[in-house]
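Student: Please help interpret what follows.
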Amino acid sequence: MVVNIERLFSKRATRLRSSEIRELLKITQIPGMISFAGGLPNPNAFPVEIIHECIEKVFKTDISNALQYGTTEGLTSLRGVLAQRMRSQKNINCELHNIIMTTGAQQGLSLVALCFIDPGDTYLTSVPTYLGAIQAFNAYEANCESIPMDEEGIDTDSLRRNLERLRRTSILPKFLYAVPNFQNPSGETMPLATRKELLDIASEYDFLIVEDDPYGELVFEGEMIPPIKSFDKRGRVIYLSTFSKILAPGFRLGWVIASKEILDKLILAKQATDLCTNVFSQYVAYEYVNGGYLDRQVTEIKRLYKRKRDIMLDSLKKYFPKSIKWTVPKGGMFIWISLPKSIDTRLMFQKALSKKIAYVVGEAFFPEGGNYNSMRLNFSYSEDDVIPEGIKRLAEVIKEELATSYQQESYVPEGV
């Protein structure tokens, strides 16, 4: 007898959906494909020689403990240097006991969802928003209340209107999810005043803020804006960050900063998930930070990515039709493209693949779908000489679509 597996799956499992970006990575292995799809750091940004030195030091000093199980909270020495860095560079008032190490920031999102979301609970986010967050929260059967973005990062007037509407129906959102710095996917940065206002709104309506900050160090222009967490006096903000963009994603190391009350629950949730984060990676990361390598490497990464961003922006100006709009990020890894309403980037995607160019359809970053005329481009991964060619190919596809949609709109059947 064939087992009816579908009957045995939990309701939660049936809600799980594959990541469009993860699936795209398979397609982009095709020879000759130029991919602006994956949010991948550039391999040239990996401090290979420094990592080698750090590993050698771990082997010489404490390899037995580095190969052993560790505490769920994470390596004490690593949490200590991270707390010091968060205080000095981010103005976040924390000690090592306010930090838990996670298997990438993505696990931090999943732990937050596990601890705060019951089926049918509501969370808030500006849109477009990070696809991985949508997946993490959707897996725990959450309802999403989407708030439009504006030039301030999130439309706070719309946020208040939505909160009032929810309050009238006795719906109390659990938290607001935000990526204030060089947001994935838009590349936009939330101004200081908006960050403070969000904290005021969260206090007024009594919800948490989940502040996801993977790109905050990658500032090309201007000064680093303090995190929302730096203004948090009542433990209302859960702050997440990662080594994936400032060391290497393969280490799968992230961290969460939160109040003791919240962190205690996250620790229990993590114990049931993976016991502890990769211990060897934590030892290497400690040597990387404690040895003073991190600041120097971040400077190199910013120089590399700024150059690539500028090449992509110059190429967009050169090849894209005038009707196309795009963001100009001051850091991070992404540019958001907005096309005329007549263009459907889902349908256009197969034509793009035929010309060996890939992007991420904008719909993926909207919990309720829609926004088919948008796309996300990554500028960090591709080599310098590949970026102009990729933008040129993409421009050719867009021009063909524009010409087709114009002809369709201009066509009027006989007798009408």
The mean pLDDT is 94. The longest strand covers residues 122-127.
